[in-house]
Amino acid sequence: MTDERVQDHYASAGKGSSIAARIAAAVRATDGPNTSITPETLAPFDHFHGGGLAATQELAAALQPQAGETILDIGCGIGGPARWIARQYNCSLTGVDLTQEFCDAARELNSLCGMAEQVRIVEGSALSLPLPDAVFDRAFSQFMVMNVADKAGVYREAFRVLKPGGRFVACHVSSGPNGLPEFPLPWAATSDHSFLASDEETKRDFASAGFEITALRDTTQTPTVLAMMRHKLETEGLPAVGSHVLVGDQYLQLLVNALRATEQGRMRTVEIVAERRS
After folding, report:
1. Which domain holds residue 22?
2. Residue 230: CA atoms inside 13 Å, Cβ hemisphere, count?
3. Cys-Cys link to 197, which of 37, 39, 163, 201 (CB 3.0-4.6 A)?
């Protein structure tokens, strides 16, 4: 998938200012007109992936950030995970994203949270990070590489910008044993724009980038749980609160398709923890 196609897919959420305004309005409609905009009050809306805040908390547990460290979020979207980790762990975050609208929204939400100095947003490609070598203590990527055919290229860039001894955590959707999923999905409208890798391909790509994988964990829910979640969405629709405020009601079908495909073994979620040893 080209950079332009990725931008087009996600830019449909709207301009950066309108994204930030919609999310701030949704927070105050839910919690009251005088509610402060913080990473905690934003959390139901700005963790822009199916796992929500819980998935970010799991990622942070694997990342193990320490106070004062510098951390990179590759494919940061509107910055929800970056803001939450920065606030929870008292560290500095840099987020890189390809989509200008998301970068603009992330910067505006950072300002509303009073975190413009603690969380920096840079527009750029994961395949050519506009950042110097060996400057970050840790890095992560959350549900982004499904859009990228050259996954090894993403991992090489993560390796390049990490300090020796740095940790990289990637959470993404991988291929399943039972064929392709049904499209559209949250990250791609058609199969031409989706690139799911097997675990063996993932291990190969990490190794080619120079990383040593210390853990590869299948985080897929059981088919029974997935079926229950899908049935709830199909019968009750989208909940009142959620990240779908970015993209509207069409997100319902994207989520249903993703749940069905995972339930059928056509895709899986995985978490990889890797280290730059030198």
Report:
1. 3-275
2. 18
3. 201
